[in-house]
Amino acid sequence: MDAGFYFFEQIFNSAIFYFALVVMCSYIILCFFSALEMKAYMRKNSFIDYREILVSPYAPSVSILAPAYNEEATIVDNVKSIMSLHYGNFEIIIINDGSKDSSLQKLIDAYQLEKVNFCVNEQLHHKPIRGIYKSRNSSYSRLIVIDKENGGKSDALNAGINVSSKDLLLCIDVDCIVEQDALLKLVKPYLEEKKRVIATGGVVRIANSCEVEDGRLVKVHMPKNIISRFQVLEYIRAFLMGRMAWSRLNGLLIISGAMGLFDKEIVIKCGGYSHETVGEDMELVVRMRRYMHDHNLKYQVVYIPDPLCWTESPIDFKVLGRQRNRWTRGTIETLWTHRDLFFNPKYSILGLLSYPYWLFFEWLAPILEGIGLISFILLASLGKINWEFSGILFFMVYAFSILLSTIAVLFEERSYHQYTSGKDVLKLLLLAFIEPIVYHPLTIYWSIRGNIDKFTGKKTWGTMTRAGFAGNQKKTEVTAVSQAVDIKEQQNV
Amino acid sequence: MLIILSTGPYLENLFLHRLPFFPDNIKISLFIIMFCTIATVEIYLYVFLKKAKMKRDKYLDAKWKEKISNMLSNIIIYGDEDDGLEKVVNHFLPRFKKLPLNNKRVREILIEEIRIYHANFTGFTADVLKELFVRLKLYKYTLKKLKSRLWEVQVEGVREVAQFWLYQYDSLVFALTDHEHEIVRMEAQTAYVRLNKEHPFRFLDHMRGRILPWHQLILFEIITKAQHVKIPSFSKWLNSDNDSIIIFCLKLISHYQQLDAIGELIRLLKHPNEEIRRMSVWVIGKLEAEFVEEELLHIYHQETLKVKVEILTTIGRISSGNYFDFLKGCLDSDLFEVRMAAMKAILGHGKKGKIMLEELLDRVSIPNQGIISHVLDTRI
Hints:
The structure holds two protein chains of two kinds. Chain A is built from 13 helices and 15 strands. The longest helix of chain A has 44 residues, at 2-45. By secondary structure, chain A is an alpha/beta fold. Chain B has a domain at 62-136. In chain B, α9 packs parallel to α11, α11 packs parallel to α12 (243-256) and α12 (243-256) packs parallel to α14. Chain B is mostly helical. In chain B, 71% of the residues lie in helices and 0% in strands. Chains A and B meet through α1, α2, α6, α12 and α13 of A and α2, α9, α11, α18 and α20 of B.
């Protein structure tokens, strides 16, 4: 009994405590790097006239790839919105991934499409293509629609890559609202970095409750739904603090699946998107990075702080839980697939810093938190708890969480201050006090469930239910109560 | 507040009396709690004070901007060209002199507004605005900006020199064309092209750094859209040690259709840099230099895939009709890109090419039929 208690005391009083300290220090360091990166980016780009890229014949060519599955309610408007992006040299490839509804017919009717004799260069593997469509109307000459058998998001993107004829690939979720100048901003790093840029990503924001007009976001509002509000804070923290810092260190492991711009040549050389994971966005970036290392090529993965893409967040805990569960499984799959990177000096920052960080702090930390909570309950029931010390330790973590979220709000205010009203800022700041107690334990739970599902062999994407952008009236408010549209019900593997 | 007041004595006892007796991890925790609390409060104060300051700045900026904008609009409305430049400037100058120009906010708004108006007007109005800028001695601040230690201020200065056509200061701008900061360098180079009438591209002779693609894009736009720029023969920079200068000049040679560069372009077909070789082939195609076709075929088999595809595209662009057999022979290639580019090159020969592809369609393998059908489909 004494030996057991000694073990607990040592582990939980020391090892776990110092692990937590390391996590906290890493967050502070990331904050610091993020601040540096954002400041540099904003100073540098305050002089930029993006119209120069728009009109230049030497701007890189871009293929926009948007997989669609059962999107009949919104597909026509979504394509219209993508077509209005400000850029000169681009094509839009919509991949109808075996939709069971009338998505394809709606596109054919709206854009006067007809089957063409397109010869595909089969560089990447994917399910058979049933037909490729182009418009009779020259106004829609940029649009290509691929109709293929259902194979999941990765499979659809691989088909799109094979059809693409441009140098860069912008992979987006078809239901996202993309800012009109997003392409101009995403392309710029490819033109100005001294090393070869293999991928760029921009900040993804929550569109719930925002005003949308003709597929464009016209006014930003704080979501009315509390679950979405938590995600606003979480996204600001993740994008403005985490990813910007990793971009500074050239250690980014993930470009959001909602929107990322990739070097096509490298994507093809790496074998395209993997069919073996539900976290295909992260896995691709890791594989591209290791390809560059293996071939001794200098490269960079860049993140830019501009809010370029607005997505609708889940509005109930059930759907959110499914999403987080999938993210956790995707992380585990990527980390496991590339396990030889772990502290491998050959891969410099990737092997020595990014990979271990993700392993210890993104994958392991929630598990440890869960174990900590169970142990606490266990020890409390045995009367082995010093309540005052426990309270102090709890309050330390709580105070740090609040500080971190407050810094995130500060970053938001100092950069793009999307939430212009003082009330919205105050709401965000106050949310920082509730989030560690209400929302964070749930994310831990979902993460642990993701681990359990992974190790018990669950391989589905899960059903992702969203409220939808409720029609496309002149001015539409994205409401949490609008009719649910089931948008993704794919079996990925 | 009640909670804070009620916990006050406990916290006082905790931090002032009991702290030394706690284990290390609890001491560290208490320190972190204190740090986080103070930092959070400070950030709160900062966010709200900053918001208030921004609101005030916005109000003041809008107020001065409106006033200055009205004054400048008066020049446009009432500044009659028949009165002559001197009379108009003398009429408006005293009103501008009454502005508190020692106030940095007002001065910067005035410079910015004159700059915007000047950029949007030509002829008499632009001359009046420039004269006003000079008579108000605002150029002194511009020159000060050029000598600033902050790169962003230097960029502002360079832009002002260029936009107000202060030709006499082109040497100051030239000194910045090889600046260590890439944005200053880029701005100075674009400004110098506008300011120097005799040798606007002199900076290419001594440039050490790489001209990044972004930088090339901006320079290309400025050069090709600027009026009254003396365009030299860019072939003289094609033997530069700086590969980015060669690539940039290749773009300009193509734009200005400088046929005198063809000799240098043939030499560049043996350049070690793949991108330069590819670009050279591309420019040869743009110049439709038929007599270089044989040379292109000569290097074809040793080339990389990218250059091979560019050679095939160029043969299609020149469309002399001398190499149909070679293009047809490309259908035996294992590489999809080569077969596709060759068939597109045949189609590039117009009606003759189209008939040839239609004849080929029945005689080739199924995969190649797919390629030819693709090429012949005008909707793609």
